[in-house]
Amino acid sequence: MTNHLITFDVASAPVKVPTGTLLAEAARLAGVEIGQPCGGQGRCGRCAVQITSGGVRRRSTVRLSPEDVANGWALACQTVAEADATVMVPPQEKIERRLTTDRTVADVTVPEGYSPSYVQTLQRIRLELNPPSMDDQTDDWSRLQLALRQQARLNRVDATLSLLQKAGTILREGNWQVTAILDVQEEADHGRLLHLLPGRIEDDAPLWGIAVDIGTTTVTVWLVDVTTGEVKAQASEYNGQIARGEDVVSRIIYASKGDGLAELRSLVLGTINELTQTACNRAKAQPVEVVKAAIAGNSTMMHLLLGIPAVSIRLSPFVTAVNQPPLLTASEVGLCIHPDATVDCLPGVASYVGADISAGVLSSGVYQTEKLTLFMDVGTNGEIVLGSREWLVTCACSAGPAFEGAGVAHGMRATRGAIEEVWINGDTYEPTYRIIGGGRPRGLCGSGLISLLAEMLLTGLVDKAGNVNASLRTARVREGEHGWEYVVAWAGETDHEHDIAITRVDIDNLLRAKAAIYAGFSVLANSVGIPLDWVEQVLIGGSFGKYLNVEKAVQIGLLPDMPWEKFQFLGNTSVRGAYYALLDREARARLKDIAARMTYIELSADNSFYEAFTSALFLPHTEMSKFPTVEAALQR
Amino acid sequence: MTNHLITFDVASAPVKVPTGTLLAEAARLAGVEIGQPCGGQGRCGRCAVQITSGGVRRRSTVRLSPEDVANGWALACQTVAEADATVMVPPQEKIERRLTTDRTVADVTVPEGYSPSYVQTLQRIRLELNPPSMDDQTDDWSRLQLALRQQARLNRVDATLSLLQKAGTILREGNWQVTAILDVQEEADHGRLLHLLPGRIEDDAPLWGIAVDIGTTTVTVWLVDVTTGEVKAQASEYNGQIARGEDVVSRIIYASKGDGLAELRSLVLGTINELTQTACNRAKAQPVEVVKAAIAGNSTMMHLLLGIPAVSIRLSPFVTAVNQPPLLTASEVGLCIHPDATVDCLPGVASYVGADISAGVLSSGVYQTEKLTLFMDVGTNGEIVLGSREWLVTCACSAGPAFEGAGVAHGMRATRGAIEEVWINGDTYEPTYRIIGGGRPRGLCGSGLISLLAEMLLTGLVDKAGNVNASLRTARVREGEHGWEYVVAWAGETDHEHDIAITRVDIDNLLRAKAAIYAGFSVLANSVGIPLDWVEQVLIGGSFGKYLNVEKAVQIGLLPDMPWEKFQFLGNTSVRGAYYALLDREARARLKDIAARMTYIELSADNSFYEAFTSALFLPHTEMSKFPTVEAALQR
User: Fold this and answer.
1) How far is CA B305 from CA A307, B78, B333, B633, in A?
2) Euclidean distance between CA atoms A459 and A449, whole angstroms
3) Cβ within 8 Å, pair A137-B351
4) From its phi and psi, is residue B199 left (phi > 0), alpha (psi between -120 and 50) or beta?
5) Average pLDDT of the residues in B383-391
6) Cα(B96)–Cα(B92) distance, integer angstroms
């Protein structure tokens, strides 16, 4: 048997190995550490190395694109030496980024600044007024209105009573030099005076607004300096309503009893107000300095925020009380920011396609692309939009909160301590996992659950129907309180010293969630008579986008089996849309147009939905032909 | 001496009396009761009888017009028999009405209905909506807006959050048949949905609004059925702020300290809310059914109502914070009516010419007359407008609350128990008085005070400087705690069993009040270079108008000495203006125009004012030539 000299760039010396030796083994001999979380099964892609010269044979390239292979990449666990070779081992951290971040936008990766050409909704204007005199006894408010109309070229300026109560004092305190903050909304000649400050404010002083996304499970607040468009801080947390029901339907039921509506309203206000305070602390701002809020969220969340009964959302024919709430003030809504701040609750489309989706269609650019696009926002509900600049159809499928880590025994939000990716050794059934922020695991977030389920399928730990295989020889499969379960982490290795496991109940929840979404794709495509594979790009919004592995999502049948490059993860498109609407008068107008243009398809009225849903309740699907790459992987 | 047969229509038989016998004496002999409150001095006019045939000689006709005399009227105490005569004695009640009501409009004499051609600000619209279905999932609010826009021909319909919170429930409760109440204000294509009721409401069901006048001393509320324009009830009461200062300046000072502003705001709200409740009780309505309030009042009252600091009103250059408050809701203002009711605080002109005067100019018709008109509103302040349809100048003089019965030892409002007219016998100095509502007296209202002061002047009880003549032989003149005083009613004859007297301090207050007003007339006429006697009519608004006797008011120098027929008493022109604005969209627009058109003359900046004021601090005036009829009366 011929020996070959393998030179690892990070090793002190080459090693000599016989033909057919795995590069992973050669690396071990050379003293080079290459991670193999999946136990050398070629599934995780974490042992990718680059062959810079020499001859190797790749047994499997399933984690590599043709371009990767052309560029010399190979999986160390699936590649054998056939000649002398030089191998570059990238730092582990670099591999991880390549596998995940390239196609994701993190929640925390917020824009550094918005297009410089936008027309601000908020205007800060310095005024030097002529003081009143015996020859000019014009009242304060007329004096102020006249100056504002002239300087801001407005036809009309309004103010709240509370501003009128303060204006005279501020005008005199500033000795008739004041700074006015105006909100100019849809009608460009009509402004609302939000705030008046004595004296002059530096032009580069921040002018604060917040963009808010109220998800059923997670609430996100961006604190924005609207003078620059810069997002200065962000904060997100579980919606305080979560203990009163995990999905919109249970919230609506809760709200319809006794003081439930008032309680849920107060809970979500508590969450938003706390997040705003947190974000302000980070940016050294005061909540009372925040003069505008743009709020996106699904229709139920918007109703509950505003104390509007949501009961009609749940009952046929499923209508909202209001899709386009009027502009309100913070004190009316109950937000702890400047009491006269404008609160702009963005327009929604229907009961289950709310302002979060209008905002997502705006921020993802679906409304202006020429490509046939599938846009999905996976939160507690899964809303789907199909279309382009020409037309937009949309539907909603009740996915439940599983992908947000709720409604699952050891689920958690995608924050520090969450297991975000899992690999399972097909021989030993021992898992390896990656934890957000490192350290010891605390639970499984949505992407972790998807990854775990996909690995369990590929290793035979579950069958296509989601049943845990109880016959396997491993202590990790055991019978628990909720039937058979698989232990991902033993108590001793966790942060809280309890086992982290996935149960049969969890698996059913995940199956229903992914089936609802996949059925939505099918029905929507059918409704316009377009096969799913005509779709040119799939844009994915939602809180789990950052960590989601497309391959795993396809393996469980959550996403259609398409080439990876069609998928793009956009993170929280809802809060981003709210951010655009907060800043830009034209974006706000487009948002209204988008909401008006989307054609809503009611899945509950669509006979084909339940069939599609039932078919999708398998891993990946009853029709395996729709998932050729998964079929191939299972055969391996 | 010849005897004459005098036949009284109400007597059982004629009486025979010698030539020169007073008809009053003949009546006594015939057993006919003719009241002579002034003690037979020919001053009160209460003994007027009508000579239907025969010969009499009138010694004095001072209380009778030439037409009266031509029609046979004579004063029984001033007319002697010279031949046989037939005399008709009208019922006492009829005489009283003739003397007062002909030229007054009582506060309680409210319009029975407004012009049928007006364009209502409030609209009640029956809607039959198509219920939502799976084919029409339009949200409730869009469905409602669309129907309203179509039926009310509006471009835009707004609503408060609280209405949106209720709308869905009401729509379903009414099974998609609802009655909407809309307020359509200045912009005729822009409506606000105030109220939504399930089902249909009868067309003749009342639709309630209130017209409110907030005087410094007195608050008046009219409860109006806006479908007919009928005033269904009215109530008025002292402004609850009165204990915190009797005039606007002392209120402003009180409001500028500590929580004074909040306290005064809450006090006046308390008064309005109580009056509204009272009026509603009378009309069997509920305050929560009241969907609109139109509020007039002086500028200080308006500021205090809205919690807006009024301090700049008091300090040079005397500007208000706001002359034209925006439309507000009842819940913002703090009125206990329908929380979403529109509150329309009418526009004012300047610090001391408020919405009460704009409203008065509207309701009195000054703004559309061709006659040169002097309009005055005498409340705690005296505001004066001079002009016609062509031009309007206005000024304000600080009269103090004396004419509203406040700031005077035994003063009271013109309600039941108030002495409203006084006559004093020139020989005995014994008074006779008339009491509002009859019964025992409780105090003196403004007209009673004016009447009393005039009588005291004519009988020599006071001199021109207002000093009480201490040398007269009557127990009614005595030295009291506040100097010399005159007792109008002894404890035994009063309701509360305390003497009712007028003190030197009271007289000074009355002198300053009337001097301020008369000086205002002078300065205003001077400012446009017009002599006072070019004025063709004097329209008098204000709460004491009902009972005021022009002759007495001229005698003390409050009103200029002009023929009586030039004077017209209009009662509370402010609440009447508010009433027009409540009902009629065009009246509301005119009101804005009036406020914009009035030229304000600041008396405190006018050097001639103090001179005019000082000259008017006498009874009736230093220049007696300005008051020829008073000079003549004093000589009698």
Assistant:
1) 29, 53, 8, 46
2) 15
3) yes
4) left
5) 95
6) 6
The residue type at B79: T
pTM of structure: 0.79
> What angle is formed at CA B193 by the lines to CA B187 and CA B197, rounded to 5 degrees?
150
Q: How far is CA A487 from CA A434, A493, A496, in A?
A: 15, 12, 15
**How wide is the angle at C-alpha B45 spanned by C-alphas B41 and B49, nearest 5°?**
110
Chain B residues closer than 8 Å to A308 by CB:
164-165, 168
| Nearest chain B CA: its distance from A386 CA (Å) | 20
How far apart are alpha carbons A420 and B119 in whole angstroms?
A: 68
Strands across the sheet containing B599-600: B567-571, B537-541, B373-378, B382-387, B392-397, B599-600
Which residue of B lies nearest to A318 if distances are taken between CA atoms?
Answer: B137
What is the spatial distance between Cα B623 and Cα B636, in angstroms, rounded to a whole number? 19
Torsion of CA A526, A532, A533, A538, to 10 degrees: 140
Residue type for position A347: P
Give the rounded percent of residues in chain A with a pLDDT score beyond 90: 65
| Exposure string for B498-514, b = 16+ CB within 10 A, e = fewer | ebbbbbbbbbbbbbbbb
Selected residue of A130, A135, A141, A173 to mutate for chain B interface (largest B Cβ count, 10 A):
A141
Of B43 and A112, more confident = B43
Which residues on B lie below 8 Å from A159 (Cβ)?
326
Q: Measured between beta carbons, which residues in chain A are less than 8 angstroms from residue B140?
A: 312, 319-322
Mapping DSSP onto H, E and C, the string for A420-438 reads: EEEEECCCCCCEEEEECCC
- Alpha-carbon span A379 to A359, nearest angstrom: 14
pLDDT in tens, B536-548: 999 988 765 566 7
The alpha-carbon gap from A576 to the nearest alpha carbon of chain B, in Å, equals 25
A128: closest CA of chain B, how far (Å): 17
What are the pLDDT digits (tens) for A232-248? 999 988 899 988 887 88
Cβ distance B323 to A132 less than 8 Å, yes or no, reads no
Out of A136, A140, A322, name the one closest to residue B139 (CB): A322
Domains within chain A, CATH numbers bracketed: 3-102 (3.10.20.30), 122-198 (3.10.20.880), 208-345 (3.30.420.480), 362-401+511-635 (3.30.420), 407-500 (no CATH)
Residues, chain B: 636
Mean pLDDT over residues A297-324, rounded?
Answer: 95
Between CA B494 and CA B498 the distance in angstroms is: 7
Give chain B positions within 8 Å (CB) of A165. 306-309
Q: How far is it, in rounded angstroms, from Cα A353 to Cα A368?
A: 19
Tell me the count of A-B CB pairs closer than 8 A: 128
The answer to whether A602 contacts B134, with C-beta atoms less than 8 Å apart, is yes
Chain B positions in Cβ-Cβ contact with residue A320 (cut-off 8 Å): 139-140
